[in-house]
Structure formats: C-alpha cells, structure tokens
Write a structure and sequence with these properties.
9-stranded antiparallel sheet, about 30% helix, globular, 11 helices, about 400 residues, alpha+beta
C-alpha cells in the first residue's frame, strides 16, 4: 500500500465556524462549531488508518516501526514520532492571543513542570511536551489575523484616536520608552500589574472601537478587527494585548509564518495550517484558559516585528512550496491537471481542498479528505483534477 486514507477528528472549539468545514466537504452543517480538523499523529487527536488489521491510531503505527514509516533520515532526527501536524482551521471568532516557546525553553519548561509534579492535564500546566511550535497558515479564502508587535509609537498614535483617558498612561509609555521596554510594560500591566486599569479599558473600548470601525477612518478595517475581538471576549483585558499587534489580511493562497516568541491570533477565515508537533501555548488573553503573565513575559519577543509573509516558489510540476526556516515541516500546494509523480524519503500527508485526486491504485481524495504516505511507500502517481496540499519533512538546509 503506497497511501493510507486517514480517518480524522474535528475539534469543536467554541471559536470555530459552524459552516466552513461542512461547506468544504459538501455535507450539511451540524449547527455546532467546527474549529480544526487534525491530520497527523499528535497524541491529542491522532488520525487513524486501516491496513487490514482494523483501525489503528497513526502514532501507534509509527511507534511500532519508525524506520519503515518515517525513513532513516526523519527517524534519526526526530525519533519515533511524526514531527509535524497538519490541520484545516476554520475560525468565526478570535482565537486567544498566544505565543510559542523556543525549543530550548520548551525543553527546560517541560522538565521543570515534570519535576514539580504538575499533571499534564492540569489547567495551569504550560509545557505539555518538550518541543517548540513554529507554524504556517495558508489562507483558502479571505483570512484575518493579528501577528507581531506594531511599532509602539504607531500604536500610541492609533490608541490616541480612541480618546479614552484610561489609556493615557500606556499611550505615554508607548510614545516615549524604548520599544521593547514599552511593549513589555504595557502588556504586563494590562494583564497583571495594573489589571484593574486593563479591565476598565476593556469595558470602555467596545463603544470607541465601534465608532471608529463604522466611520470613514483610514484604519477602519483594523478597528473593526479589534471591535469584533472585543465582542468575542467582553471585559477581557487581553484586548489590549491584541491591540498591540499588526492586523493582517490574507487572500486565497497567501501564507503567514509564525516563529517562536511572536504573539499572534487568528481572527476569521478558513486555512490550511501546519506546525511542529507540539501543544505548547502561552496565552496573552482573549481566552477563559489559564494566563501566566510571568511565564509569558519570559517567552515573548518584545521587539516590533513585521508579519512574515511567505512566498510560494515552484519546486516541481504543478507544485508551489511555502519556504520557511522550520526543520519539522514543509507545506506545498499541488495543482493536478495531468498525471504527475511525487516522491520523498520521509513521511507525507496529502490533503485535498478542491476536485478529485486518485493516488496510484489506492485511495481517492475529495475535499476535506487526506492520505498518509509512509516513507517506505516509494513514489506515487497522482491523477485527476484537484488542488492538494502536501505536508512533509524538508531536507536539511
């Protein structure tokens, strides 16, 4: 067998869309939020395959024979685990503002929490594995996000237009202090050190944001994004963290890369997301989940950063790859109009988002369906009329 059809799991997080995944797959919406469809071997929701022995979790299949499934190169580098996780992400509401640790901090943080005896499923547990979590999102339609700190002086000018006296001390910090100091001070003050002010600001912001979003302000789209996030999480001072970040809009086929330390939040839209296989997330707000401000401040990169848009470059017939520095994953988009062959010495996952694709004499993929290709499977032939996304482990650079 050169490819295994994946049986996947949809995660019903409250911020998920009630229609996007159903529309992509051509089924009737359930009425419940459907946020993420996971394709991979992450223990949180591993996909399942059936090779004639009954349904098995993909992580267990890989652990049983990692050399066969992953190939020598990937198994030697990452051990007996698939190093990436592929997802379809569908957001109708803002996700939490969040940041991911570096590999070194993840390893140290995991060891410290293990030594402290904090259960892996404890609500206040931060590091649930030893790995970092760089990620890439590629939009399938119009997509909005927040990503990276805006220059604090630009943020000061933006916030000044809200005309809210409660923000004046922070506006002065953003205008006059060194950039990293100003951003650290305002973020930690809003979430912890001066949380009472943060909560007052969160209560007053919705009306001011709504007025600017509905007017002829040049930044109306940005104001609308912040207004909607404030509505999604009323009274949450994390809205101040969100308003320190750049507002990003992606069109179909455009991609954004998020590295360690860069705060971000996805707001609206449907996209293909790929990441290193980790569940380490530190949250800055817009969430009912645990926020540890001290741990957060140790991880966040407080330098202003422009959003890291990722170009797609041709790498083969009908294939465009989104180039990132990540060692764990590579994502490309394949347009099939005539038969073509793909090969790699590591594991791969193919996801269909349009049309119908046939894989050798194995499974046929339609939108929302995916297949796992073990390293030992060899080259495969793709045929049909379809758009696929291909996840794999890149060659060492």
């Amino acid at each position: 067998m050169t490819a295994d059809l994946l049986t996947t799991t949809i995660r019903p997080y409250a911020w998920g869309s009630t229609t996007a995944l159903a529309e992509l797959t051509g089924r009737r919406p359930t009425g419940a939020p459907e946020a993420e469809l996971w394709m991979g071997a992450h223990p949180g929701a591993p996909a399942r395959i059936d090779r004639g022995r009954g349904s098995e979790a993909l992580d267990a299949v890989i652990a049983r024979d990692p050399r066969h499934e992953l190939g020598d190169r990937v198994a030697e580098r990452f051990g007996a685990r698939l190093p990436f996780l592929l997802k379809l992400l569908a957001a109708d509401h803002a996700l939490s503002v969040q940041v991911h640790p570096t590999a070194a901090r993840a390893k140290a943080g995991y060891a410290a929490e293990e030594a402290a005896g904090i259960p892996l499923d404890a609500p206040h547990r931060i590091y649930r594995d030893r790995h970092h979590k760089p990620e890439l999102i590629c939009a399938l339609g119009d997509f909005e996000a927040l990503c990276g700190f805006r220059d604090p002086r630009a943020t000061a000018a933006l916030w000044q237009r809200l005309a809210l006296p409660v923000l004046d001390p922070w506006i002065e910090q953003l205008r006059t202090a060194p950039a990293d100091q100003a951003l650290r001070t305002v973020l930690t003050a809003a979430l912890a050190d001066d949380r009472a002010r943060g909560e007052r600001a969160a209560a007053e912001l919705p009306a001011a944001l709504a007025a600017l979003a509905s007017g002829d302000d040049a930044d109306a789209a940005t104001w609308a994004a912040y207004r909607d996030a404030a509505r999604d999480y009323p009274g949450d001072p994390g809205i101040l963290a969100a308003m320190l970040l750049n507002h990003v809009r992606l069109g179909p086929g455009q991609a954004l890369y998020l590295d360690a330390g860069v705060p971000h939040a996805y707001l609206r839209g449907l996209g293909v997301e790929i990441m290193a296989g980790s569940d380490n997330v530190l949250r800055c707000g817009l969430t009912p989940k645990h926020v540890d401000t001290a741990a957060l401040a140790a991880v966040v990169d407080f330098r202003p950063t422009a959003p890291q848009h990722v170009p797609a470059v041709p790498t083969g017939p009908g294939e465009l790859e989104f180039l990132t520095p990540a060692e764990e994953f590579s994502l490309s988009r394949i347009e099939i109009g005539e038969p073509l062959e793909i090969a790699d010495d590591g594991p791969q996952i193919l996801l269909c988002v349009r049309g119908t694709a046939r894989i050798d004499d194995g499974p046929t993929l339609v939108p929302g369906r995916s297949a796992y290709l073990p390293a030992a499977g060899g080259p495969v032939r793709l045929d049909g009329d379809a758009t696929l996304f291909r996840a794999k482990v890149p060659q060492p650079r």
